[in-house]
Amino acid sequence: MSERKIKVGLVQQSVADNDKATNWNKSAARIAELAEQGAELILLQELHSTLYFCQNEDTDAFDLAEPIPGPATDFFGEIAAKHNIVLVTSLFEKRGSGLYHNTAVVFDRSREIAGKYRKMHIPDDPGFYEKFYFTPGDMGFEPIQTSIGKLGVLVCWDQWYPEAARLMAMAGAEILFYPTAIGWDMTDTEDERLRQHDAWHTIQRAHAVANSVPVVVANRTGFEASPTDGDPGIQFWGQSFVAGPQGEVLAQASSDKEETLLVELDMTRTEQVKRIWPYFRDRRIDYYGEIVKRWRD
Asked: Which ranges carry the CN hydrolase domain (predicted)?
């Protein structure tokens, strides 16, 4: 078995306002640092161009959306070409008048878009009113082919669903990527915060284990105030991480600092793990038919 290794980086940053140029340039500086260190593939966090505007429902926030291609994809396409990297970005897509998506866009060492993924699972919770803004994705769970392999790109709330990870892996995804924006309600107790974070960490490591693939997660950090009077805002918990194909944590960022991670993934070892733990061979697909139902009555 020939050796195959990939250097993967991610950027964890805070966002202070909706000045896209400032936020893009901050991301670009971190991308440049990672590229200089040898990163071949870099992941940015969810909706990195602006504040997390889903804390309330405001029709003016639709002005933040962009078409694809558009200014954001032009900017990051240039960055991918300049540094000769595969780059996974995230943006608020305006598909048409009144039709918007939360979309990840991938570039493969060039200005051209290699592929995109529209967030499939859309939350609607206090402080995370995403159903107001985003139409659920309609592209399914299809990996994006790049020069370094097939990438299974999913987005934030998708990370809680084993079906999404499984279908990406079944279609040949070699690594799962989760650009993310998740944090604590400031009224949560310390114990509740720990439980929430542990659940988030565990479910994604479980996707790595169940599918024998590495998982790369980029979350935002910092506090973002709510536009709604009396609302406590969100403290994004950072702690971006990379897990190997057995769920082992290879690197993890802090909770409150802007930083980057760079990990060399041994894809030869990933293949070895799949041979030792043949989950896909032993799946009882002849008895899984009811999984497509909403509930078993």
From this structure: 6-267
